[in-house]
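Can you give me the bound-state structure? Components:
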Amino acid sequence: MKILAINGSPRAEEGFTNIVVKRFLKGAQNAGGETEVIYPAKMKIAPCVGCLKCWLETPGVCRHNDDMPEIFKRMKEADVYVFASPVYVDSMTSQMKKMFDRFMSISEPFFEFEGTRSYHPRVADRDLKAVTISTCGFPEREHFEAISLTFRRICENIRARLLGEFYFPASSLLASKPEKLEPQLSAVEKAGGEIVEKGIILEETISEANREYVDDYRAFCEEMNEFFHKVRRKRGLE
Ligand SMILES: Cc1cc2nc3c(=O)[nH]c(=O)nc-3n(C[C@H](O)[C@H](O)[C@H](O)COP(=O)(O)O)c2cc1C
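Here's the bound-state model for the whole set.
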């Protein structure tokens, strides 16, 4: 089984999101899966300009000459997609969104009414599976509401079965107190293994991975403020 992770963080390997992505892939690798991570921020991806050339002049071919064909090639070879992005202004990063916008170039323009809604025709000729991962700075889980909805809609649009969503708020704790988050990270790793071994992720694994770990939101805010004041004082800014 091939698992392709796409991590939209501009901090790429250095970011908090990658800590979670790496644990998922570690679980998948240990179970015999083949894994790869790509970072849209490190690739050349031009923003869609909505010219519709890919639909009406050169079907399937975008006017931009950049790294998107490479991303499509890797997606074609993968069985599971891990869509990962930090929350940026209640959404995904612009690097990630720019990539998703360009998916339009490989879809056909036609509308198909299926079940209760319309879609563009299916692109993949096989069953797709997906997992989503996000981290955010604030401690409450409500900050994932918008990105979760967007990820779920994207999976629906590309007809990928979303097998699990993994959300880590108060993301600085991933670096400052990794031991506190170890049960959740272990569950993410377990989920990576389950995907390869069972083709699904158990509900209990998803619940364990998303279990609350911030005991007191107000106290967390105070800790963050202490940290920021300390750095600013050190730099002579206060
Ligand atoms: C431009 C920008 C916007 C952000 N917007 C939010 C936000 O709306 N809500 C939130 O909780 N955190 C927000 N954050 C914090 C990031 O989501 C958080 O630090 C995340 O873990 C960074 O992931 P990374 O290290 O993988 O890049 C924002 C950070 C940046 C730089």
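A couple of observations. Residues 100 and 154 are 8 Å apart (CA to CA). The longest helix spans residues 178-198.
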